[in-house]
Amino acid sequence: MSLGNRIMAWSEQAARHSEPGPGVTRLLGSPEHKALLADLEGWMKQAGLTTELDGAGNLVGRTEPKPGRKTLIIGSHQDTVRQGGAYDGMLGILLPLAVLQDIHDQNETLPVNIELIAFSDEEGARFSSTLVGSSALAGTFNPDILNATDRDGTTLQSALRSLGANTDQIPTLKRDPTQLAGFLEVHIEQGPILESLDLPVGVVSAITGIERHKVHITGKAGHAGTTPMHLRQDALLAATDVVRAVNDLCQNTEDLVGVVGELNVTPNAVNVIPSGVDLTIELRSPVTRVRETARQQLLALLNDRIAAHACQWKHDLVYEQQEVDCSPVIQQQLHSAITACGWQPHTLFSGAGHDGLAMARSMPIGMLFVRCTDGLSHHPDEAITEADANAAAQVIKHALQNWEVPA
Ligand SMILES: [Zn+2]
């Protein structure tokens, strides 16, 4: 069985741990998460790793620690968006796992100790915060988010405990940077660049900065038949101008993308003028200055456009993540591995957030992107080929065998 073959077979099995419906929906602390952990634990043990579920719900598999060697953390997130794909996150767990199994089967030892981690949560689809697992390892976990609730009022704390995670341990999970050789993540590209270049893999130079706002617009409900058009305070009309303002700004600003992804209308009735809208705005840029300038412009723009509909509004910046650069040393190691495997090394930037955003706070990080079909991700049709999985696994194997440990 080739590495690619094993990775595809495991991915298929992992994707079965999903809520019903199209694609894969596996949220933090769900029964599907718990069922996946049982499979992963079995596969990790088969690859010679000892396993532990830590207090943040991360499943950690460790190679037998060799004294005097530093530890390279490898991993990605187990969780998905709602109706996402089978490879976003999971590939970064299963691909290195297949490599570690191969190395174990051949009785090889690596120049570094390995911790392979299935992070509990990166997407944040269930609770309002993301990077739960990786922030715990980086020592930046905010304990307040344990009280965050999902749509049904379940807290993050009780979701983690339902997995068997002892959340009291979270403060002890921070890794000692002096003992680390870095963090490496394999991830599908989630974009079309590698496909356009006809390359199976690419080296990531940096991960985007992200900010998210919650906006509430207050209008005035009224009878949709009797209130004259010019006397209306229609919150939904104001919201459509917000959607347009975000799009206009991003279309006209280099290195900036953004979206209004969530919209809730009150009272949401066929014959009532909308009295309120809650919406989210997300902005992303690789350059902090660009994003911060865009935020100021956007807020000024919203003031004007919402006032034009005689509505009031308020906003909260609910999430902000600075961009991070990947370690030049790790980028070079991945370049060398790609060259050694006979591929053209190519460097690209990540427009999506990843666990490396949190991990970079206390260790050097690196990422390898794998080509995905049609550049598609966060979608049930998300796909990679077995040949690309195999190519990426060979690159990772070569990189691990030759990992240079920083002094
Ligand atoms: Zn991901």
By CATH's scheme, which homologous superfamily of the largest domain applies?
Answer: Zn peptidases
Rg result? 23 Å
Report, as a whole number of angstroms, the end-to-end distance.
37 Å
Query: Please, what is the oligomeric state?
Result: single chain
CATH class of the largest domain: Alpha Beta
- Which compounds are bound in this model? zinc ion
Give the H and E element order: HHEEEHEHHEHEEHEEEHEEHEHEH
Major pleated sheet: 9 strands, mixed
Task: Using the alpha-carbon principal axes, give the shape.
Answer: elongated
Strand content: 15-25%
**Whole-number tally of structural domains:** 2
Structural class: alpha/beta
Describe the 3D structure.
The chain is α/β, with parallel strands linked by helices. The protein folds into two domains: 3-207 and 324-401, Aminopeptidase; 209-321, Alpha-Beta Plaits. It contains eleven helices and 14 strands. Strands 1, 2, 3, 4, 5, 6, 12, 13 and 14 form a nine-stranded mixed beta sheet that branches. The longest helix has 20 residues, at 288-307. The two termini are 37 Å apart. 47% of the residues are buried. The model has no long low-confidence stretch (mean pLDDT 96). The structure holds zinc ion. Residues 77, 88-89, 122, 187, 354 line the site of zinc ion.
